[in-house]
Specification:
Order of helices and strands: HHHHHHHHHHHHHHHH
Number of strands: 0
Largest sheet: none
Helix content: over 70%
Number of helices: 16
Structural class: mainly alpha
């Protein structure tokens, strides 16, 4: 295996470990509700903790990595992401739990801009290569519930420190594997081109709307499905696995479709399809809800890696900044919509809370209709 493939493999695997802890947050929430009696608003606040600090800090990490490569942020961010989740179940204090989850969000913020910048350089501008990098993150999302549910179902929140083990191991291995990347990445010529902030801003609206849907579903889907079909936490965790697992496969599909039809067209069609799919999650009765979850995953995750490459091509001179926004700020700000779903659910019921999400893919579709393919492809 040559150096580029080896480094890309490390980045893909590391992205999976890092985003495992983003996928772990919605899987942990039902256990906070069961063991501590958190309300819908309190549960949504946990999601905010994972996203608030990350949304503010992540673009700053992007600006820093545009000025100077910082490969060490990749393993360090991954480690903090896991340690925060590991600490979250140790205290009955809501404030301390919130801070532990926020620490995990800070780790995610440190990881993504530098990892995405390195991945684009190592992939040599290949959209397929970046799709694999994005798949790593989506696989991690899918594995979050797979890791969290059996551990906490068996030992309760007191066993949460075990959840930090993948990050501790992955951080050490990633640090060792990427020790020589600094010089390699720094030697790559800087691309000179026009930064199109107008198109990038429009893309950011698309990503925020998409993120609000995925975070809203991620926060409440397990609770909703367990109520809808019975089976307790296991049924809810299965729905999250379908959401994130089908999403991971759809990310690769997005790279293939983009090569044939173009990235902008794929975005527009995907978000149009997401409208009825999201509505179906809230309205379809019984086990058929899993089918609607899968269709929603396809519609929302096909565009995922395309957001990153489009953002980087709209800002060719600021890869770290573009990555910090497309993988960080825009995604994290989306988590702030979860309390709205929680408020609607508390005022009426959870079905109406989920139905309120339908407006968001409409917003994404409208914004995507104004996108055009970047000059630099």
């Amino acid at each position: 295996m040559n150096n580029s493939r080896w480094r890309m493999s490390v980045l893909v695997a590391g992205h999976a470990v890092d985003d495992l802890y983003q996928g772990a947050v919605p899987a942990v929430v039902p256990f906070f509700v069961l063991e501590r009696g958190y309300s819908y608003l309190a549960a949504a606040g946990i999601t905010v903790a994972a996203t608030l600090l990350s949304s503010v800090v992540q673009p700053l990490f992007g600006v820093l990595t545009d000025r100077r490569p910082m490969p060490w942020l990749v393993p360090v961010g991954m480690t903090f992401a896991g340690v925060g989740i590991g600490l979250s179940g140790l205290s009955d204090s809501y404030v301390l739990t919130w801070l532990a989850i926020a620490l995990s969000g800070l780790g995610v913020a440190a990881y993504h801009p530098e990892a995405a910048r390195l991945a684009r350089r190592v992939a040599q501008d290949s959209h397929v290569g970046m799709s694999w990098f994005a798949v790593g993150g989506n696989v991690g999302f899918a594995l979050g519930p797979v890791l969290v549910t059996p551990v906490l179902a068996f030992g309760g929140l007191a066993w949460s420190p075990l959840l930090a083990v993948p990050a501790l191991v992955g951080g050490v291995l990633t640090f060792a594997a990427l020790r020589g990347v600094h010089g390699a990445s720094a030697s790559v010529p800087v691309v000179v081109g026009r930064d199109d902030w107008g198109q990038f801003s429009r893309l950011t609206v698309v990503i925020v709307a998409r993120s609000m849907v995925t975070f809203g579903l991620g926060t409440f889907l397990a609770i909703w499905v367990s109520e809808r079909v019975g089976g307790g936490p296991a049924a809810g965790a299965a729905a999250l696995v379908v959401l994130f697992g089908a999403g991971a496969a759809s990310t690769l599909l997005g790279g293939v479709l983009a090569g044939r039809f173009g990235r902008v067209r794929v975005l527009q069609v995907s978000y149009a399809a997401a409208v009825p799919a999201v509505a179906g999650v809230a309205l379809v009765p019984g086990p058929a809800v899993y089918l609607m979850v899968a269709l929603t995953a396809v519609a929302l995750y096909v565009p995922f890696s395309l957001h990153v490459t489009l953002g980087q091509d709209y800002l060719p001179n600021r890869l770290g900044t573009a990555s910090g926004v497309t993988l960080g700020l825009a995604v994290s700000v989306g988590g702030l919509g979860s309390p709205v779903v929680g408020a609607v659910a508390s005022a009426w019921n959870l079905q109406w809370g989920l139905l309120s999400l339908v407006v968001l893919p409409i917003v994404a579709w409208v914004a995507a209709r104004g996108l055009r393919s970047p000059v630099r492809v």
